Amino acid sequence: MEEYDVVVVGAGPGGSMAAFTAAGLGLETVFLERGRKPGDKNSSGCGLGQRWWRDFPEIMGELPGLPSYRKVEMVVINLVDEDNRLRMRSGTTGSDLDATRWPHGMEGASVYRSCLDPFLAKRATDEGAELRTATLASDVIMDDGRVAGIVTDAGERIGAKVVIAADGAMSTMARASGMRNRWGAGCTLVPQLDFGCDEGKLDDVIGNAEWCWFGPFYGAYQVNFREGFHLGAGQWLRRDWDTRPVDMLKRVMAIPAFQAMTRAVDARPREYQAHLLPWMEKPAKSFSAGLMLVGDAAGFPCPLEGEGVWHACTSGRIAAETAAYAIRKGDFSERTLSEYERRWRASSLGLEHEFGREFVELWDNSAFDPEKMGRQIQLLLELSMLNPFSICFDWGDAHMECLNMHLSHFLDMLPEFGEFGGRYIKPFARGISPGNVRRMLCMMKPRLPALRRLSDERYLWLLARFSRSLRPYLEGREGE
Ligand SMILES: Cc1cc2nc3c(=O)[nH]c(=O)nc-3n(C[C@H](O)[C@H](O)[C@H](O)COP(=O)(O)OP(=O)(O)OC[C@H]3O[C@@H](n4cnc5c(N)ncnc54)[C@H](O)[C@@H]3O)c2cc1C
């Protein structure tokens, strides 16, 4: 039987990053891909966003050389009502903070996975890892209670000190090793249609932007590449469906504003696919003796956006570093590999999942629930109507009368907004830092005649005494 330090299963982003890192650390590494080449599963490609410049700058620097690359600098949100009318189109523009917070401002990238995966796999083979394509890992080798290698569907046995499973949402390795059978409630199915278009027209009409479509249907995203785009939508598997996955996309394709955009860029459908995406409240258990799960196999995609390529690469890197640590120790026990979970929890990947439950509940009660979404679109439109510019442009009545009409209409809707806000937005308050809570309270002090003469310290002390909900922010967390 062949023996390696590390066997990586899967040559998606997570697997290639794990193989690249392991080989770079001097470990004898092989990575296996069931497809004829990496990138056969051409399912995603956006979200190579600002943090990539911080964590993987050498990759970002080379992406413009890939044929499907499009620079991304903003997200455009299209809000559609139940009669399919486009009611609001607004784009994120970034702020001065974005320009200083990230090395390249808001610059990100979109690249088809059919380009990205071969590029990442080549980095790994250039670093010394061995790639075997058309090789399906179908089982694990168990030795004294630990995973000690894999078995291919051709019956070949490959031994390893550590196995890194980067085999995606369905992870055969997680199931074969007994770590997990099926996903619980949080798995999502994402149907996606790829369109080819005229590159120049796409530049003119879309520019360097991703688009989203929100309405009384499942929220949909439009990832734009150099000469094509993906239209995709998602829905939890746990819901009862009355549609086929492709029907979710047909709902978006029926929007006249969407059709106008496709005509303007000469879009023509090219490829349809539907894949599972673990969109979880929290990741699954990610290690056992001799085995670590990375990327989708561990349920790492972002609970807010379902973005998962960065998460796969980040966890792949941490898993390979942990493998090197275990090999140095000569100990592949579950206890030693728990270091993997300690490390990813301490990284920004761990931070991303601290609000998993809140984000999932927010989606569950908005974009993934067409009925509730219908009402929330209305609320968002009401909110936007309160914006002074839109009221000034209403020339139908005296402006103050107009303002009062809008206000009264808005107040009619407020109870519903209050209920939604209280239940699904308020939970995020626990993430606001004590320092920012103190700043906000101190900004209110001059407006409180009875308290404004107090020193800030005394004022905050008093608030802590009388408000149980503010107390955790105000006591014993100096300097935060
Ligand atoms: C439709 C869709 C759109 C998405 N869009 C985006 C996006 O725009 N941006 C973003 O950041 N994320 C996106 N995601 C999420 C993202 O695709 C995943 O989170 C990411 O690909 C996870 O990478 P991975 O390496 O863990 O797994 P995968 O990308 O699934 O790669 C797994 C690899 O392992 C191979 N494999 C599987 N089983 C075996 C086996 N037994 N033996 C050998 N090889 C095996 C597969 O062929 C595959 O190449 C999207 C997901 C979907 C479904």
List keywords for this structure.
8-stranded mixed beta sheet, binds flavin-adenine dinucleotide, 41% helix, 480 residues, 4 domains, alpha/beta, FAD/NAD(P)-binding domain, 18 strands, D-Amino Acid Oxidase, Chain A, domain 2, 22% strand, 19 helices, single chain
CATH architecture of the largest domain: 3-Layer(bba) Sandwich
Give the fraction of residues assigned to helices: 40-55%
Rg estimate, integer Å = 25 Å
Instruction: Give the class from helix and strand content and strand pairing.
Output: alpha/beta
What portion of the residues fall into strands of 2 or more residues?
15-25%
Bound molecules: flavin-adenine dinucleotide
CATH superfamily of the largest domain: FAD/NAD(P)-binding domain
Largest sheet: 8 strands, mixed
Find the count of extended strands (DSSP E, 2+ residues).
18
Give the CATH topology of the largest domain.
FAD/NAD(P)-binding domain
List low-confidence stretches.
Answer: none
What is the overall number of helices?
19
| CATH class label of the largest domain | Alpha Beta
User: On the 0-100 scale, what is the average pLDDT?
Assistant: 92
Task: Domain count, please report it.
Answer: 4
Specify the overall morphology. globular
If you had to describe this structure to a student in words, what would you say it looks like?
It contains 19 helices and 18 strands. It has 480 residues and is an alpha/beta fold. It has 4 domains: 187 residues, FAD/NAD(P)-binding domain, CATH 3.50.50.60; 136 residues, D-Amino Acid Oxidase, Chain A, domain 2; 72 residues, no CATH class; 41 residues, no CATH class. Strands 1, 2, 7, 8, 9, 10, 17 and 18 form an 8-stranded mixed sheet that branches. Strands 4, 5, 11, 12, 13, 14, 15 and 16 form an 8-stranded mixed sheet that branches. Helix 1 packs parallel to helix 5. The protein is globular and about 85 Å long. It starts with a strand and ends in a 6-residue tail after the last helix. The model has no long low-confidence stretch (mean pLDDT 92). The structure holds flavin-adenine dinucleotide. Flavin-adenine dinucleotide (FAD) binds next to helix 1, strand 11, strand 16 and helix 10.
